[in-house]
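ZP: hey, is the fe (ii) ion complex queued? I don't see it on the tracker
AM: it wasn't, my bad. submitting now with these inputs:
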Amino acid sequence: MKILILGDICGPSGIKIVKSKLQDLKKEKKIDFTIANGENAAENGKGITKKNFKELIDAGVDVITTGNHVWDQKEILEIIDKEKKLIRPANLLEGQPGNGYGIYKIKNKKIAVINLIGNVFMKKSQDLFSFTEKILKNIILKKDADFIVVDLHGEITSEKMALGHYLDGKVTSVVGTHTHVPTSDTKILKKGTAYQTDIGMCGDYDSVIGMNKENSIKKFKKDPTAKSHFPAKGKATISGVVVDADDNTGLANSINSIFFGNNFK
Ligand code: FE2
């Protein structure tokens, strides 16, 4: 089973490149199932609208994960409970709508996608490690799902790395999202779980993590003319990973990063 996981799709540039390149990429890499983090897909880079959701699904994404900006576009509340292809971090504080994971059927196999959010330097949420353990009591690899893919949306590298090792051998892959900066630590952990600390973003890299660079500098300089952050609108780069998962064990045979487009030109 070949699973493509795309990093945070950032603003109109990110949507545009996914719409124009995803089908070719899937064909070229023989992808069976595609997951993308869509929590920065909106015009202003915060949250995801109903239109964005449809655009990404129509472009060939099978499941959209989110993160700290999940509720920024209020209209998403209208669809989050019924759209099984849109999930939000499972360990948000109790009482919030939507689902934190889903199990999807593809080629007579079941693939579980779990969305989590880090505890460190993020908004208050339920304990990442104990909550994940609770979920994995209900979703056991090769019993309840043939593959289990985890998107940990978090700020710090060490928390993501610790969760990767914690889940090693219990899930197919653990990748991080949220920082928009791809790390070069793509690897298979000791017990067979594919891992990358952060898989980067699909957006304009001539920016400050996808946001307009001039405005971002003004914000850091406390310039009173600085506006709210807004996405850089130049040509985008696609960033993510392809996980080749073993149909028998549910663990990873390989993980390779993908990074192509207009990146630093
Ligand atoms: Fe985020």
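AM: back. The two ends are 34 Å apart (CA to CA).
ZP: great, adding it to the tracker
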